[in-house]
């Protein structure tokens, strides 16, 4: 079992330093060219891979241009355009409703506050954080997706299970200047090495400080289940 550093703040700082060395070009993988496309891509990415979303939005963004197009698109038509995305019917409805709100309440512009964003259909705190960070250059939180949730628990940064509570814990120990990059680093490492079902602990740059190291630890702290 790896041995975490003395404090969670020290642990978090060491994790960021090592992952920055391992993934120097880490950044958002969703493709978009404006704030509305970013919002739509993030809505679509819930429980769906970024790779799949990028494949689908390539044609979507060529077909629809601006909130008016999405708001006025028939539900069946928009859903059909998204039919390879998980929960595409619901997501089509979220997009249409959000674009109606953007037109009616925000002069056609994607809002730039957490409160206004989370009032949009299908937009929770995670989605709002992504839009604020990459659409408006506003960083007021940490995006907690499944990779961040898994890694932060495995690495002993939190014992919380809900994303909102995990975010609160992380914001107390991750330097504010690293809030945005922390997510990207966790996503890259989660995809490459610290996968959900079969992490490659033997080739992990964090193994010596990870209390969940497979083979030495008996328990995966992400799930609480034995390895």
Automatic annotation (TrEMBL):
Source species of the chain: Natrinema zhouii
EC number: 4.2.99.18
The protein's name: Endonuclease III
Binding site for [4Fe-4S] cluster: 194, 201, 204, 210
Catalyses which reaction(s): 2'-deoxyribonucleotide-(2'-deoxyribose 5'-phosphate)-2'-deoxyribonucleotide-DNA = a 3'-end 2'-deoxyribonucleotide-(2,3-dehydro-2,3-deoxyribose 5'-phosphate)-DNA + a 5'-end 5'-phospho-2'-deoxyribonucleoside-DNA + H(+); Hydrolyzes mismatched double-stranded DNA and polynucleotides, releasing free thymine
Cofactor: [4Fe-4S] cluster
GO annotation, biological process: base-excision repair, AP site formation
Described purpose of this protein according to its UniProt entry: DNA repair enzyme that has both DNA N-glycosylase activity and AP-lyase activity. The DNA N-glycosylase activity releases various damaged pyrimidines from DNA by cleaving the N-glycosidic bond, leaving an AP (apurinic/apyrimidinic) site. The AP-lyase activity cleaves the phosphodiester bond 3' to the AP site by a beta-elimination, leaving a 3'-terminal unsaturated sugar and a product with a terminal 5'-phosphate.
Similarity annotation: Belongs to the Nth/MutY family.
Cofactor binding summary note: Binds 1 [4Fe-4S] cluster.
Pfam families found in the cross-reference section: EndIII_4Fe-2S, HHH, HhH-GPD
Domain HhH-GPD stretches: 44-192
Keywords associated with the record: 4Fe-4S, DNA damage, DNA repair, DNA-binding, Endonuclease, Glycosidase, Hydrolase, Iron, Iron-sulfur, Lyase, Metal-binding, Nuclease
Record HAMAP family: Nth
GO molecular function, one term: 4 iron, 4 sulfur cluster binding
């Amino acid at each position: 079992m790896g041995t975490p550093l003395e404090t969670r703040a020290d642990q978090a700082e060491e994790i960021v330093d090592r992952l920055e060395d391992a993934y120097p070009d880490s950044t958002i993988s969703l493709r978009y060219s404006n704030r509305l496309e970013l919002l739509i891509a993030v809505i679509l990415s819930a429980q769906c891979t970024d790779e799949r979303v990028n494949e689908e939005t390539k044609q979507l963004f060529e077909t629809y241009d601006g909130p008016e197009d999405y708001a006025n698109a028939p539900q069946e038509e928009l859903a059909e355009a998204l039919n390879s995305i998980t929960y595409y019917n619901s997501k089509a409805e979220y997009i249409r409703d959000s674009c109606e709100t953007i037109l009616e309440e925000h002069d056609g512009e994607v809002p730039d506050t957490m409160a206004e964003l989370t009032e949009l259909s299908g937009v929770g705190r995670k989605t709002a954080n992504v839009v604020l960070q990459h659409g408006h250059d506003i960083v007021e939180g940490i995006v907690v997706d499944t990779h961040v949730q898994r890694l932060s628990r495995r690495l002993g940064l939190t014992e919380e299970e809900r994303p909102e509570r995990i975010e609160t814990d992380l914001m107390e120990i991750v330097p504010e200047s690293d809030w945005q990059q922390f997510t990207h680093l966790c996503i890259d490492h989660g995809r490459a090495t610290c996968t959900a079902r079969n992490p490659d602990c033997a080739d992990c740059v964090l193994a010596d400080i990870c209390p969940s190291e497979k083979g030495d630890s008996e328990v995966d702290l992400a799930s609480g289940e034995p390895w």
